[in-house]
Design goal:
This protein is α/β, with parallel strands linked by helices and about 260 residues long. The chain has nine helices and eleven strands.
C-alpha cells in the first residue's frame, strides 16, 4: 500500500523557508531493518513519483540501519548494491547497526551485545546457526566466512552524512553545540536524547533529516525530522520528499 501526505512548507531554523537547490528532488528513506519487501515497494513508489524529472534531478538517500531485527537483511543489501550499480542518484549512509555488525566481525567479545540488538536475526538470515552455547568468536568467524564480499565492501564504504541545500541527512543526528566538521562518526550514528532535546542555541543551522528513533509516525519538530516509522515493528517504511521549499512524505506499508 502507498500512503502520501500533501505538500507543506519547510521552515529553516532561522525562520525563512528552507530550500533544496533548484532542479533537484530529494527522497530520504528511514530505517529498513531487514524489511526488503517494504524497501522494494517504496523504491517502486519513488520511481513512479520521480518519473517526471529530468535525468540527474533526483537524489535518493537511505539513512542507515539496513540490517538486524527483520527477516531479510542480506536481501536489503543486495537490493541497494544492485541499485547503486545502475542508479547514480542513490546515496547510502551508515547506521549504528551497520557499525555494530562490522564491530562484531572485528572484535566479537567487545561487541557481543550486537546479538541482542538484532544481530541474532541477521546471523540467521545469513544461515549462521545461533545458540546460547556458541562462542561469539565462532559466530563471527562463521559470519565472516559466508558474508559476500560485495556486502562487506558496501558496509565498509558507507558514508556518515550528506548535506544538500538547507538540509543535513544523517542516521542519528549530531552532538549539540559541536561544529559539523568536528562531529565524530559515532555521535552521528548513535546520538539520541541529547540531540532530540537540544536547546535552540545548540541546534545546527540545517534541518536535520534522520532516523534511529522509531515511532509509529513521522516526528517533525521543524528543525529535525525523524522518518524512522519502525518498518520492522509497525510495517511502515517512510521517505521524506524535499523539493524547492516544500516537503511531503511517501510511505510503503505491508497492508
Amino acid at each position: 500500500m502507498l500512503n502520501a501526505r500533501s505538500l507543506m512548507d519547510a521552515i529553516h531554523p532561522g525562520g525563512r523557508k528552507a530550500h533544496i537547490p533548484a532542479g533537484t528532488r530529494v527522497y530520504a528513506i528511514g530505517d529498513v531493518h531487514g524489511c526488503a519487501d517494504l524497501l522494494d515497494r517504496l523504491l517502486d513508489f519513488i520511481d513512479v513519483d520521480s518519473a517526471d524529472l529530468a535525468p540527474g534531478a533526483r537524489t535518493i538517500i537511505t539513512l542507515g540501519d539496513y540490517v538486524d531485527r527483520g527477516p531479510d537483511s542480506p536481501g536489503v543489501l543486495d537490493r541497494l548494491i544492485a541499485r547503486q550499480k545502475t542508479d547514480p542518484s542513490l546515496i547510502c549512509l551508515k547506521g549504528n547497526h551497520e557499525d555494530e555488525l562490522l564491530g562484531f566481525l572485528a572484535d566479537p567479545d567487545e561487541h557481543v551485545h550486537w546479538l541482542d540488538w538484532g544481530g541474532e536475526e541477521t546471523l540467521s538470515n545469513y544461515g549462521v546457526r545461533v545458540s546460547a552455547a556458541r562462542e561469539p568468536r565462532d559466530l563471527a568467524r562463521e559470519l565472516g566466512a559466508v558474508l559476500p564480499e560485495a556486502h562487506r565492501q558496501f558496509l565498509h564504504g558507507l558514508s556518515v552524512r550528506k548535506v544538500i541545500g538547507d538540509y543535513l541527512f544523517v542516521h542519528a543526528g549530531i552532538k549539540p553545540g559541536v561544529p559539523l566538521d568536528e562531529q565524530t562518526e559515532r555521535d552521528q550514528m548513535w546520538v539520541r536524547g541529547e540531540f532530540h532535546s537540544a536547546p535552540t542555541d545548540q541546534r545546527p543551522d540545517k534541518i536535520v533529516i534522520h532516523g534511529h528513533q522509531s515511532a509509529k509516525k513521522v516526528v517533525d519538530k521543524g528543525w529535525r525530522i525523524c522518518v524512522d516509522t519502525g518498518a520492522v515493528w509497525n510495517g511502515v517504511l517512510t521517505a521524506i520528499v524535499l523539493e524547492g521549499n516544500k516537503k511531503r512524505f511517501l510511505q510503503a506499508s505491508a497492508d
